[in-house]
Amino acid sequence: MLLVFLGLISLAAPLPGLAQGSTPLPSAPAQKTQEQVSRATSKTLEVAFEGRWRNEFRDNADLRPTDDFDHLLGQRVRLNLTLRPHPHLTLFFQLQDVWVVDAASDKVIHDLDTNIHQLYFHWRPAGSERWAFRVGRQELAYGEERLVGTFGWDNVGRSFDAALLRHRAGAWTNDFFWARQVDARRNGAPRRAGHLELAGGYLTRQAKDSPGRLELYGLFLRDGLRTGGELTGIPESIRILTLGLRRVHQPKTGWRYSLEHAWQFGARGPDDHRAAMLVATVGHAWGGRWQPRLGLEYDFATGDNNPADARSREFHNLFPTNHIFYGYADLFGLRNLHAFRLTAATALHTKLTAEIDYHRFLLAARRGRWKDAAGRVLGFDPTGRSGRDAGQELDFTARLPLHKHLSFLVGYSLFLPGAFAERTRGPETHHFGYVQTTVRF
């Protein structure tokens, strides 16, 4: 009954037309990791609970003039157990239960399933402050999570069966890992034919009390699901190396900026793969009662302008947490993209933050495909005659942390298709809204 009652709260929550406050500019403050939480307390056993209920609606998701209004109520319940049998050893277990109710046509519903989302041990040899080792099922998140993230917006989220070695030296924190994504099947689909594996290193330099941070990374993706190429049907696996850097300056108030650039090399099936991406943000944050923030963001990812030359040029966005960056309607990923984002946010009350985002989307390669973050093709014109204009989006969001145990998230998004989207998909305006309730103990 408690779960039903809290779900009804999310349906009747106030503040219509407001929604989730996205990340403070230019990037979200990092949440405490399980390692930080573990080291901040000496309790032998801890139990935590999180319940999340999100009521969503979509209209004109296919941009075509048909009646395709869809609604769903997603429930995610997580139970966390943290055990410390030794001062240098932590065991973490996270059980997850997911339900989706009243989804008539939604195509990204996961199996209704109770599963182990995380189960790992974290060990600091001899209590070392320099070395740590983590093995088991776990979440991975780096930078702003544009390439490697937890995908927390999703009802199931993302986790990996992984081994991670962390080394600290001065201002540097260096992670080296191998990971295999946990297969979360959707709509009763069969198991994936090949595993998605990620290996690499992520090096971060941040001096104590400094607002600046430098990140360097090398990530190698291997997709065991074999794919054919543009000219040959002989299937091969995907093997892509991503090399990148990110520079961030983010004081609490004043000017802030970030710059991230990455290059990719390898093979997408039998085709040679070369691609790149660039993300740049600049903004200003003020203090005081209203704490206003303004920001401007530019995102670029290469696309494949010749779909029949056996050369892959579309950037692969790996394992992102995509929702907050390229429109909350989730119609775009960091693939074949020029995107411009203008953000304004303010604290209307000590417990209410409101934000508005304007997005402008263009294709980087007019003969390339329009894809979302998961790689689903939403539009394609191999002639290039439909142009580059994919559309515009307005996002209205608000966050209401009513109590330390209870918070609300409410939002509405409006996508207006451009010439390319109209010609390859449809001319209708797409509407997306949600009310989310989260309870934590």
Would you kindly provide a written description of the structure presented here, covering whatever features stand out?
This protein has 441 residues and is mainly beta. The protein has one domain (2-440): Beta Barrel (Porin). Helix content is 5%, strand content 53%. The protein has helices at residues 2-12, 34-39, 419-424; strands spanning 45-59, 70-86, 89-101, 113-123, 131-138, 160-169, 172-181, 196-205, 212-227, 236-249, 254-268, 271-285, 293-301, 311-312, 337-349, 352-362, 369-371, 377-380, 389-403, 406-417, 430-440. The strands form two sheets. It has an 18-stranded antiparallel β-barrel. It has a two-stranded antiparallel sheet with strand order 17-18. The longest helix is centred in the first third of the chain and has 11 residues, at 2-12. The protein starts with a helix and ends with a strand. Mean pLDDT is 87; it is low at 1-34 and 105-112.
